[in-house]
Design goal:
The chain is an alpha+beta fold. Helices cover about 30% and strands about 20% of the residues. The longest helix has 16 residues.
C-alpha cells in the first residue's frame, strides 16, 4: 500500500471517530496494511474504548515496537495491563513512560497530531497505584511525594487525595488518557490529497475566425507584420510587487515595524517616504528599512552584461535617518498599532554584539549599573558574569566595568547609537559554565527560511530564547529557530 493510500485511509478513519462511529473507524484502521506507530496507537485506543483488552495490548505492542520513545503508548499499555490486573507489567510500563519523559513536566503531542498532553505527575500517580495493588504502600507514598515536584495546579487535588488514601492504605482511581483522542495525519499532507485543476478549461477570447470554438493550445490569432522585437522580461518580475533593491549594509530594527536585513538580501520597495525610509517586502514580510541602505537593482537582460562591475560599498554604513511624523511610509495592515508608538525618544540605542546581536535602550548618560542591568535581563545572566567592551577585543582600555567613567563611553555615541561587545564568564562551583546543549526528541522540518531543521537525536547549541514556545539555536553549521517542545536540555556531568 502506498503512502498516499495509507494517508487517505488514516484521515478517513479519524473522521469517522470524530463522528463517534468508532466501529467503522476501527474497521478502516485494521484494513491499513502497513500501519505506523501512531496508527497502531489509534487502533489500541479504539480497542481499549470497546473493552477489548487483548486486542488493545497487541496494538500497543506494535506501536512501541515501531517507536520505542513514544511515552504515551507505554502509558496506554500500562492502563491496559492494570485493567487486566497484571499489576507488575502495568508498573513496568508506567516506569518506561516516566523514563521517556526525560525529566520534563509534560509532553505536548499537539505538534505530532494528538491534541493531548502527558503529565509526569499523572504517570507517577499511576505508578503509585500499581505499587499499592502489589502491597508496596511505602513505595506508593514515595512516588506520590515525587509527583508533587512535577505537579500543576490543576493536578494538585488528585495527588493530595491519593496521598491521603495511601496513608490509610486504601486504593484510589487511576488517571486515564482520553481514548477518544487519536493521532491525526499531517493536515498539509491531507490537503494535497485533493485533486486540483491547475490549468482549468481553455476559452477563446479573440479570434479572426467567426464563431471560433477552438480550445486547444494554439487558436488562430491575427499576426502583426513588421512588429518590433524586444527581449521578453522574466515572468517572475511581473508577479512580484514593488521595485527590486539589493541591501548594502546590515540593518538591525529598533521598533516592531522595522525589518532586519543583511548585505546581499533582495528586497522589494513598495513606497519611499520623504524622510528617507522605505516600506519593503522581504521573505513575505513587510517592514521599514532606511532607503540609503539599499541600491536599486535592474533585473533585465541588459543588466547581465554589467554584472560584476559594481563598486563595493564602503565598510561603514550610512547614518540612520530620523523617523518623521507623516514622512515615513506605513504598512496599512499595522497602521493602527504603529500610530500608538512614540515617535520621539531620546534614549541611547545600544547594539550589543554577543553570540547573537540584540539591542537595549538606556537613558542618555546612564550609569554603568543601569546599562549592565538591562543587558543582564536580556541574556538572563547575572551581571557579574558579563564583560562589556568598546571593541571586539577586550583589553584594559576598552573594558567597561563599575570603575569606568561612563562619560568616556557615551562620548562614542553617534546619532544616539553605540555598539558594544559582550562576553560571558559565569562561574559555577569554581568551574566555568559550558554552553547549553539540547537534544532533539523528534525530527523537525523547517517550513520557513528562518527555521532550523534537525533530526531526532541531533545535538543543538542554544543561542537564545525567542519566547516560551520557540528557541534559537545552531545545529550542523546552520542557525535558526525551532519549537521548544521538540528538544530537551542535555544534563551536565550526568546530573
Amino acid at each position: 500500500m502506498s503512502f498516499v493510500d495509507t494517508l487517505r485511509q488514516w484521515d478517513e478513519a479519524v473522521t469517522y471517530a470524530e463522528r463517534q462511529d468508532f466501529q467503522e473507524a476501527l474497521r478502516i484502521f485494521l484494513s491499513i496494511q502497513e500501519p505506523n506507530s501512531k496508527i497502531c496507537f489509534d487502533i489500541g485506543c479504539l480497542h481499549l474504548l470497546n473493552q477489548e483488552l487483548d486486542a488493545a495490548e497487541k496494538a500497543f505492542d506494535c506501536s512501541i515496537r515501531k517507536d520505542e520513545h513514544l511515552a504515551v503508548a507505554f502509558f496506554q499499555r500500562g492502563i491496559t495491563f492494570y485493567r487486566k490486573k497484571r499489576y507488575e507489567e502495568s508498573l513496568g510500563d508506567f516506569q518506561q513512560a516516566f523514563k521517556a519523559l526525560r525529566g520534563n513536566q509534560l509532553i505536548d503531542y499537539k505538534a505530532l497530531g494528538l491534541r493531548c498532553k502527558l503529565y509526569a505527575c499523572d504517570v507517577l500517580h499511576n505508578m503509585a497505584l500499581a505499587e499499592a495493588q502489589l502491597g508496596k504502600w511505602e513505595k506508593a507514598q514515595e512516588n506520590l511525594v515525587k509527583a508533587l515536584n512535577y505537579k500543576t495546579e490543576a493536578k494538585l487535588n488528585i495527588i493530595d487525595r491519593a496521598l491521603q488514601s495511601t496513608l490509610k492504605q486504601k486504593l484510589f482511581k487511576p488517571v486515564e488518557f482520553p481514548s477518544k483522542e487519536l493521532f491525526k495525519p499531517n493536515k498539509h499532507y491531507v490537503a494535497e490529497l485533493e485533486k486540483k485543476d491547475y490549468l482549468g478549461k481553455a476559452k477563446v477570447v479573440a479570434s479572426v475566425v467567426p464563431q471560433d470554438e477552438f480550445s486547444g493550445f494554439a487558436p488562430l490569432q491575427p499576426q502583426v507584420e513588421d512588429g518590433p522585437t524586444r527581449p521578453k522580461e522574466p515572468e517572475v518580475l511581473r508577479a512580484l510587487e514593488g521595485e527590486p533593491h539589493t541591501v548594502l549594509f546590515e540593518f538591525v530594527p529598533e521598533t516592531s515595524d522595522e525589518l532586519a536585513v543583511v548585505p546581499g538580501n533582495i528586497v522589494f520597495v513598495l513606497q519611499k517616504g520623504t524622510d528617507n525610509w522605505a516600506s519593503v517586502i522581504f521573505n513575505e514580510r513587510r517592514g521599514l528599512v532606511p532607503y540609503n541602505y539599499l541600491e536599486r537593482l535592474e533585473i533585465s537582460l541588459a543588466s547581465k552584461q554589467n554584472e560584476g562591475k559594481r563598486t563595493p560599498p564602503s565598510r561603514e554604513p550610512p547614518t540612520r535617518p530620523e523617523r518623521k511624523q507623516g514622512g515615513t511610509p506605513r504598512d496599512n495592515s499595522s497602521e493602527d498599532t504603529q500610530c500608538k508608538e512614540e515617535t520621539t525618544d531620546n534614549s541611547y540605542i545600544v547594539k550589543v554584539r554577543f553570540t547573537f546581536t540584540f539591542i537595549v535602550k538606556v537613558p542618555p548618560g546612564s550609569p554603568y549599573v543601569i546599562l549592565i542591568e538591562k543587558i543582564s535581563k536580556k541574556l538572563n545572566l547575572p551581571s557579574t558574569a558579563i564583560t562589556l567592551s568598546l571593541t571586539s577585543e577586550a583589553n584594559e582600555r576598552s573594558v567597561i566595568d563599575a570603575n569606568t567613567e561612563m562619560e568616556r563611553v557615551w562620548s562614542h555615541v553617534k546619532d544616539r547609537h553605540i555598539t558594544l561587545w559582550c562576553n560571558t564568564k559565569e562561574q559555577t562551583d569554581g568551574k566555568p559554565q559550558t554552553e547549553i546543549h539540547l537534544v532533539a526528541l523528534h525530527s523537525y522540518e523547517s517550513s520557513n527560511p528562518e527555521d532550523l531543521s534537525f533530526h531526532e537525536g541531533d545535538t543543538i547549541t542554544l543561542l537564545s530564547r525567542v519566547n516560551q514556545d520557540w528557541l534559537e539555536g545552531q545545529c550542523k553549521g546552520n542557525t535558526g529557530i525551532f519549537p521548544a517542545s521538540f528538544v530537551e536540555e542535555v544534563p551536565v556531568n550526568g546530573q
